[in-house]
Amino acid sequence: MLTLAILGFLYDRPLHGYELKSRITGLTGHVRPVSDGALYPAITRLEKAGLLHRRTEPGSGAAPRQTLELTDEGRAELRRRLADPEQAEITDQIRFFALAAFLHHLADPTLQAAVLRRRLAFLDAPSSFFYDGDGQPVTAEREPNPFRRGMLLVARASTAAERAWLAETIEQLDADAAGA
Description:
Blueprint: H1 2-12, E1 15-16, H2 17-28, H3 36-48, E2 52-57, E3 65-70, H4 72-83, H5 87-91, H6 93-102, H7 109-124, H8 146-179
Helix pairs in contact: 1-2, 1-4, 1-6, 7-8
């Protein structure tokens, strides 16, 4: 997810490290905070892979700033990752939201819709936080624990809202693809 976020935000425009970290933190929030110990090694790996480069600019104070910018290869890599996301980027809500934040960089509405269809298929599969002795998902109606029942009810509402958004967006993308 960190690599995707770095590529996605730098696709938008060049940033220096602090700006990039702030944007990633805004995207992932307290759920998955990004540390300097994770961000800067990731930037270095991407730079060594030829996906981004640094340029030095005068700083607002005395120290110069390193501005990060995607290369053409970095732009192509982001589009590749968006068109063919890893399964965890579909099944993990935070990772999916990070993917969705940059999906507009994938210009083809058919490819965008395909990614959303994968997420919708995942949401349509029976699942739960809790399973009974036979391995069946426990529903809120069958959960006697009020705290677990609350978790299940909140997840159901969130999933219903996401399904509605996915269906509406897929329909619009299909219409856009048909009109193109």
